[in-house]
Amino acid sequence: ADEINETLSSWTSKIPGAGNSAEMQQAKETQIVVNAMIGNLGENVTATEISNLDRKAKLKLAIACKKPMDEVNGVLESFKQMEIMHRILRYRKENGIPLPTDQNGLKMAMKEDGMKVMTGQEKVEMRKAYQKSARA
Fold it and tell me: Which of the four pLDDT bands, split at 50, 70 and 90, describes residue 113?
């Protein structure tokens, strides 16, 4: 939440036209959901707790932030992906593997080490999401 607040209050958001960019609008929408999440789940909520939210908890969150369920689910999915990427980066650091320096490096790290750090449930969810996107 602090990083989003910093982004939204940075000098770049004050430039005419920059505050209306798609990235800034997305950050503002995400901030609303994150603030509602903190209000409902507490400041110390973990990625595991976010992953295990049931339908009722997600619905309460959607009502609290006045956003549609698919938008709330998108933010929650982003948190899951970030948590997996953090595990991959920790794994690489602990094993002396170089950390990625760009977007392509992150993709390669995900391919190489993703399955090593993901839980069985995360692997199943990832396969389902991949199959769903392949059909679309």
Answer: very high
